[in-house]
Amino acid sequence: xxxxxAPRSPVSELxxxxxxxxxxxxxxxxxxxxxxxHSDSPNRDISVVGDMAKKMAEASIGKPVWITLQxxxxxxxxxKKDPNVVPCxxxxxxxxxxxxQAIVNGARGLMFFGGHLTQVCTPQNAQAxxxxxxxxxxxxxxxxxxxxxxxxxxxxxxxxRTVTTKTHTSGVTDVELVTRRGGGFFFVIAVKRGGDPxxxxxxxxxxxxxxxxxxxxxVLFEYVQNPPPPxxxxxxxVLRPITVTEGGFxxxxxxxxxxxxxxxx
Length: 265
Known about the structure:
Layout: E1 2-5, H1 11-14, E2 23-27, H2 48-60, E3 65-70, H3 92-104, E4 109-113, H4 123-128, H5 132-146, H6 152-155, E5 164-167, E6 175-182, E7 185-192, E8 198-203, E9 216-225, E10 237-243, E11 248-253, E12 258-264
Parallel strand pairs: 1-2, 2-3, 3-4
Antiparallel strand pairs: 5-8, 6-7, 7-12, 8-11, 9-10, 9-12
Helix pairs in contact: 2-3, 3-5
């Protein structure tokens, strides 16, 4: 039994439903004009997704949580009642951030709602009955990433030891993360809720299985040429490398950035 609840009410009002379900979750659609009409949270940013995932994880007391993310919803569809509503959809960066932020904050399943709402589709998609343009431009690249064999060990394993962060600017970070072990690797999935671009220190990586320190890692789904250009050599693309020193590393984050780090154990 899966019960998906509305993105409203405190934990105390959601927890009583726990005996009735095996899996719970919430649908949260923060993108509209104006934004954040879908929940009762004061957070107007798309990072409200993580807040809702965290709240549902607390309310479920250990039962699995699924998060339903936005393609389209009634707040982005013009109607006779609201004829001036402007259609809008998440960009690939926004959808990717929301998906990973949900995972970081406890989601063990993701669903995507609104592809069937043909009122805001192109004429061709409306005839087909589904928003295939959104699938091609946004959802397919994200789903391919989430379903990739490189990431699967991280998504299917339990949380590992905590890695901590700090920024170089204020010492206070809005970077959220989760760590996992699987497939012979240690993973760090990190997202930045918003704010300004900053450099972030990660500390607390574990040693390798043989007791030696981790010295390097890589960022999944981000590529660079090795050796760096010039000249440009298209057959030299590798995952972006990360140098590790004394169990820590440094990387840059902009608002709503996602980085998925993998370290061989």
